[in-house]
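Structure in, sequence out. Go:
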């Protein structure tokens, strides 16, 4: 099977081509085509069965060729592959769609199998606020699979309850008070009093002042997360982080999975390199191994003006967003092609 890669992002196409060539699958002969005319010529002169993998909706809708579309959704019946996942996920889906290896399980099935309980997810963004969309969506996704708690450990939090307010109640009790009750037997009862509904998940209001975050040592946060899981029965905890301070790497290290929301372009690659340098300097190799660098697709991102009108519980009904989260959790390692690899 000749597989022609016709992608608008040429660098992305080159990375995907290298990956497919590295697989050395005798059933696929991948080629990168950079011009529409060249693609038409290759299809017209090809003696063997061929297929086109593209991110161009116009070419896909034209329907003249055996075309598979890389897009923001997964739909085998429509020959669509979710683009923002690891290259291995795209490869496995290609095998199925081209009927080259029908024994390979669907990506959605492998993703489902990797979902676990008793997990702490950290969402870190080097640019304030960029991680909120992902963290909130992840919390709604996990709440469909168990009891989930959303925490904000960022310097400028926005959620003090389920609804966004321009003048939130800064005096509401939450994480700040609970951090001083870690040794109390009634800690679970205190947590229950402080918890608020957060769509289909639950949340604890953030600390009233960022210095409260700086005053707690890593062992305090470890105890805090442990008690929330073991004594309060939370199956998963989503922690939004965006404040760089003395212990931020130590706190991130307590998470089972870290999502680094990488800003686009050259500046994003620099910030990723700086973060990796910090980890190497501090001997946090384990943290690096659990970190995945991602960029949320634009088509599922909420515009700034839409946040105040969004019902959080409705996010769980958004198939595109939930499918993206499923695939995000289903990949292993940190080579997601959804972010620039630099």
């Amino acid at each position: 099977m000749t597989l022609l890669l016709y992608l608008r992002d040429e660098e992305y196409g080159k990375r995907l081509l290298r990956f497919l060539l590295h697989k050395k699958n005798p059933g696929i002969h991948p080629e990168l085509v950079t011009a529409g005319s060249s693609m038409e010529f290759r299809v017209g002169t090809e003696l063997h069965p061929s297929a086109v993998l593209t991110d161009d909706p116009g070419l896909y809708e034209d329907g003249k060729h055996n075309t598979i579309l890389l897009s923001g959704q997964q739909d085998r019946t429509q020959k669509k592959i979710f683009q923002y996942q690891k290259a291995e996920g795209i490869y496995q889906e290609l095998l199925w769609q081209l009927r080259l290896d029908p024994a390979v399980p669907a990506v959605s099935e492998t993703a489902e199998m990797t979902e676990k309980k008793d997990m702490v997810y950290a969402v870190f963004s080097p640019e304030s606020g960029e991680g909120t969309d992902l963290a909130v969506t992840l919390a709604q996704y996990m709440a469909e699979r168990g009891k989930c708690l959303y925490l904000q450990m960022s310097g400028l939090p926005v959620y003090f309850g389920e609804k966004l307010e321009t003048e939130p109640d800064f005096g509401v009790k939450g994480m700040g008070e609970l951090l001083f009750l870690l040794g109390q037997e009634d800690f679970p009862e205190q947590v229950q009093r402080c918890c608020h509904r957060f769509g289909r998940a639950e949340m604890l209001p953030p600390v009233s002042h960022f210095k409260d975050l700086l005053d707690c040592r890593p062992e305090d946060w470890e105890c805090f997360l442990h008690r929330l899981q073991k004594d309060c029965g939370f199956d998963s905890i989503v922690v939004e982080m965006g404040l760089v301070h003395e212990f931020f790497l130590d706190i991130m290290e307590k998470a089972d999975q870290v999502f680094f929301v990488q800003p686009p372009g050259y500046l994003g690659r620099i910030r990723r390199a700086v973060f990796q340098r910090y980890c190497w300097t501090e001997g946090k190799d384990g943290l690096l191994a659990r970190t995945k660098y991602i960029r949320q697709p634009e088509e599922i991102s909420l515009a700034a003006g839409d946040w105040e009108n969004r019902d959080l519980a409705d996010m769980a009904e958004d198939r595109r967003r939930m499918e993206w989260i499923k695939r995000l959790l289903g990949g292993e390692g940190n080579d997601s092609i959804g972010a620039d690899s630099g």
